[in-house]
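note to self — DONT lose this again. spent like an hour looking for the file last time. sequence + predicted structure for the chain T wanted, 289 res
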Amino acid sequence: MRDYAKVPSQFWISEKGRLIKKLGIEARLISIYLVTNSHATMIGVYYLPVSFIAHETGLSLEGAFEGLQSLISIGFCSYDDVTEYVWIHDTAFDQVSFQLTPNDNRIKAVNEAYQDLPELPFLQAFYEKYHHAFFLNEVRKNRYFDEAPLKPLLSQEQKQEQEQEQKKKKDMLGNSKIPSVDFLSSRKEPKKISLKLQAIKILNFLNEKTGRAYRLVSTNLKLIEARLQSGATECDCFQVIAKKTREWKGNAKMAEYLRPATLFNATKFEQYMGELVLSPEEGETHEAN
């Protein structure tokens, strides 16, 4: 986590800044947020679920999605929906330098940051943009494809056998409306995967807010998944974490309770949820009822 971030004084009058000003208010807010938030790194590539953007800027999820999409459309940044990593295209120039000298100590730091990134669709583009300025050693190798065993090419006879087998399975199913076993099991899987991903986001948010390093292990994640299954939303969990962090982080006695076992305990979590302050609109609605 960085202690500070540099924002160019020419930000709003640059060519990119003029384009941003023509976008909606959400895009303008997010453009500054992407550079200055606590998750950002000096090379401008980092993990940032859209739910983080919404929570920390006060925008709705829809507003965060639309604002981010607007910035992508003008080439301000790129976003990978699978890994939820963002790349702000010019951040490394702004935060590091437009050109390092060969003996600059920052070359090692930038190279290490680049090599430590997960598999992302914009690794090649990042290298092409910055390798001269920062003396990047090499293009990040795609470990996934490097390690995956190559499938041997099928002979013509094997291809025909494969096609016949697939046709036979299709004919067996015919026009039946009964789903196959694979289909039935796959219908349950998305929800399970979705809960796991949400739990990972929430635990990462807890680590970011508290400065802790709780691991993404089942002991921690299952507590969060249980609260999600009982009806809590991702936003509810973020709010509880944010509130308790504000209350306890500076308290030597209470800071130790900023942990999954306490925050996501079934009974305690419901108590913390009840302590959340309603927005003025929600308050008026409840009073009217």
